[in-house]
Structures
1.
Amino acid sequence: MSIKTNFETLTFEVENNIGVITVNRPESLNALSEQVHTELNVLLKDIMKNNADYSVAKGLILTGAGDKAFIAGADIKGMTTMSAADAEKFARLGQENTLLFESLNVPVIACVNGYALGGGCEMAMACDFIFASKTAVFGQPEVKLGLLPGFGGSQRLSKLVGRNRAKEIIYSGRNVKIDEAKEIGLVVTVFENKEELLTGAKTYLTRMMANSPLAIYESKRVMNEGNDLTVKDGLDVEARAFGNIFNSQDMKEGTKAFVEKRAPNFLGK
Ligand code: DAK
């Protein structure tokens, strides 16, 4: 694997084809400084470049170091000295990272333990879905700081939980605890504690790996693309992808294995 893994604010470890990205600033509750976004940008682009054949990972996890937080937001201290030009650069970098998570060819699960506030909630929502422990607390408290969500929260929260609920959460800046987060569909699965959360996400990804990585990626691509389209245009994207996948080895292998009553051996191409 020829990808950079030695960062100051992140760790990246791969085991059994599952890559775990950990934001590693526990002393600041993993707040997103410019350095975190810069390093994340390098890592995500590296994964994109090297993972076309799924040799780096077939699934990814995004999480935060320590017991208290996933990510407690953008680094508020860093923002106090930012010029407007710095802020724009910071916003573009953060937004690009959320788009990179959505473009990666493998599923990305946000594993949220503790606070996922502001930019932290936004990074979690850019992943394919969110697993959380019972201590997870979500929120978009930007209005309390005279800001508004700047890494896509104003768009993605509405799509996940509905526009009215999203407005209510953003205007109030209030915390959303785990029971509510599960009830409104922000969180898919809840685990007892951080250890069970990470083990559970890895078990989930391992089971998923029996399926065709290419078919999973195409499903992800079509669903993300369709998010910005009318149903009619989205159906067109789906039909084209459905036709294209008939050229893949995985489709031939999957259907053949079914007929031959055996487990398929997918290659991701
Ligand atoms: N930034 C920097 N440091 C933070 C931080 C943050 N977001 N959150 C916590 N910390 C630091 C604390 O300052 C403290 O450090 P020391 O003061 O001890 O050096 C350490 O982490 C431990 O935090 P606390 O002592 O406060 O711990 P508590 O358990 O008492 O409280 C808390 C935990 C999460 C309730 C509290 O820390 C808190 O309210 N944190 C801030 C949460 C927040 O408001 N997050 C949203 C940030 S706004 C942009 C794009 C996006 C954004 C901005 C701009 N562009 C377009 C330019 C996004 C904005 C946000 O995310």
Note: Strands lie at 10-15, 18-23, 59-64, 69-71, 108-112, 115-117, 129-133, 137-139, 176-177, 189-191.
2.
Amino acid sequence: MMKCATRTVFADKDFDGAIRDGADELKKGGLVVFPTETVYGLGANAFSPEAVKNIFLAKGRPQDNPLIVHIAETGQLDGIVAEVTDTARALMKAFWPGPLSIIMKKAKAIPFEVSAGLETVAVRMPDNDIARGIIALSALPVAAPSANTSGKPSPTLAMHAYEDLCGRVPLIIDGGPCAIGVESTVVDATGEVPVVLRPGDITPEMIAQAAGDVRVHPSVLGEIKQGEVCASPGMKYKHYSPEAKVTVFTGGKKEVAKTVNTMYHNGKAQGRKTAVLCLDDCANLYPDVRHIVCLGKDAREAEAALFRVLREMDDQNFETVFFHAQEEKMGLAVMNRIIRAAGHEIISAKEEKV
Ligand code: AMP
Ligand code: MG
């Protein structure tokens, strides 16, 4: 990996200049970190295998993990996908621009470096003026994963991308905090019934309403068995992980609190620096916990806070993070990310005797 100087430009100071710099870098075959409404992306010209290879090098991303192609208008689809099904069309109409990546059959012009060898490609039109601005001005489709070192929590502030990628990318466009905070929903629309492969802010219910039906792939919350063919390759990796050991607790509110409080005190006795993460309405269940981080009141707020909070855990050298899950209130996207951050370390408070 070539080392390079990293320059940050601030879109709120000079929007047009930031867009110009971003588009120029993409046209040169370079990498650009840019904001989207979900998380910061690390973009390159999706038609250039060399540019795309540099994304994998900069992130340390496994070669078999495909990238999402970002577009500014539906007119760009022609050179990217070979077929747009009725299902895909309905989803685009309902959710673009927005946090939904739609998997379609890929066109020849999209290199296998982008799709990681698959015959399909995920495409998305972000709901962010800076993202769409650089894509439109460069007149290129932009392949972009999240702008973090592979395995780390995705960046929701430009500073997070800087921490991970300084010296590895020439340009970071700072556009402030990402509004949503978790990556896009990924949905396979090659068949009649859309299949959710990765949950995000757009829920299966919303997809069913737009497309008439929906399936959720079992890997969304479950563990992927060794040797199993993976529908969405990114799902098989341990992900979103801070250095701290994350444990997820599920079950009734009171039972979870009882278990977490007991384990917290055991850990404290051994001198372990531990934080408890929960929604606002559970904070009062932890009167003796010193470090308690509230993620907000609902799924939306928890999505926006989660990755930033996981990074803060590392900045403050926490060794242990106890996550008080409320599956219904937190939603699929948050549950999916935290279970992966925990490497499937889940304790069901109902069964656990402490
Ligand atoms: P990231 O860009 O880091 O948010 O990761 C993109 C994710 O989208 C990958 O990890 C895959 O799980 C999923 N994805 C992208 N393209 C495809 C595809 N063609 N088929 C299935 N899943 C895909
Ligand atoms: Mg990612």
Note: The chain has ten helices and 17 strands.
